[in-house]
Specification:
alpha+beta, homotrimer, 2 helices, four-stranded antiparallel beta sheet, binds magnesium ion, two-stranded antiparallel ribbon, ATP binding (chains A, B, C), transcription (chains A, B, C), binds adenosine-5'-triphosphate, N-reg_PII_urydylation_site (chains A, B, C), 7 strands, Alpha-Beta Plaits
Chain lengths: ~110, ~110, ~110
């Protein structure tokens, strides 16, 4: 299993969620975050305001997936997060050894 | 070492923290989050309100543990997070290569 | 590639960010968090207030790095997070299998 984390522009989150649902993803976790990438110091626009400060608001999305879904899920996220402007986001993948679904006690891919 | 992440119902957090302390866990990190699992679209109750919207408030708990504690810590969390109702939570485990305790500079299991 | 996560005192974040920039780190993600370490129950001072409660406000910093930068980046963070007082923080390292830069579609170390 894998944990896919994506840090994206907040206004792209609804489209990303919808595309993940259409793909068949059954769950995800969202956290408010902020950050910067390579153009720190350059301006990045957020809600009409230009951020010259270095920490621009972002949303951090986490999705647990089976190994066989990882590449497709990355593609879905990248496609929907993409605007072509700087600050579009970063996606990374970490190996997961165990997943537990609390209500049922299930473990492994069935628990996702 | 392992990083155990649990996304649980907010009202279960105090009991989970207390049980982890009793078990002997010495530290943890908490983040506000929101998410959905398999019943997205169904209603989930939070603070007396029914959430038909898809992102229900959750708390994300992270616990660094030695390998030999991982299974027990998962059990403690799952037992205390469990209510039997949908949305009880998800727990996952990721391998950790290094841990540093900033004040002392210690590394490895002793740094947890 | 590695994901370095640091949970530190909020007032150390600006110095940490500046030192990481000087080192050459091009991006990072910040999240508000809270937590406790080994002195839970003892007081920890935050903004002039003593926290006897167990969850003290912290900032969670995530930095994706190439393998060869991991040790140096840990050192930079630890040095700048360090005050010598309890609660200085914890840093941990997790392996990363894939990184994608959304705007360009680049993958791997070049995408960091
Ligand atoms: N090395 C990194 N480590 C951790 N998080 C990062 C890193 N780089 C970027 N991020 C996170 O991803 C967000 C988006 O980054 P961003 O899209 O600006 O990356 P970039 O490489 O500068 O690409 P672009 O040139 O398209 O702007 C940042 O605001 C930050 O939260
Ligand atoms: N695949 C997933 N990836 C990332 N986070 C998830 C995933 N599934 C669930 N979560 C997180 O865990 C929280 C709780 O999920 P939930 O307990 O509803 O899982 P479930 O599989 O639907 O189980 P249940 O049938 O008991 O509701 C969600 O709100 C979300 O934050
Ligand atoms: N085992 C752990 N798992 C997850 N997060 C932890 C753990 N221990 C500490 N943390 C996080 O790191 C923060 C700082 O921890 P802290 O510096 O108090 O660690 P410590 O081992 O008690 O060191 P010190 O003796 O210097 O206080 C905590 O507030 C918490 O957010
Ligand atoms: Mg950028
Ligand atoms: Mg559910
Ligand atoms: Mg401490």
């Amino acid at each position: 299993m894998k944990l896919i984390t994506a840090v994206v522009k907040p206004f792209r989150v609804d489209d990303i969620k919808e595309a993940l649902r259409t793909f068949g993803i059954q769950g995800l976790t969202v956290t408010e975050a902020s950050g910067y990438g390579r153009q720190r110091g350059h301006t990045e626009v957020y809600r009409g305001a230009e951020y010259q400060v270095d920490l621009v608001p972002k949303v951090r999305i986490e999705v647990l997936v089976e190994d066989s879904d990882a590449e497709d899920v990355i593609d879905v996220i990248v496609k929907k997060a993409h605007t072509g402007k700087i600050g579009d986001g970063k996606v990374w993948v970490v190996p997961v050894e165990t997943v537990v679904r609390v209500r049922t006690g299930e473990r492994g891919p069935d628990a996702i």
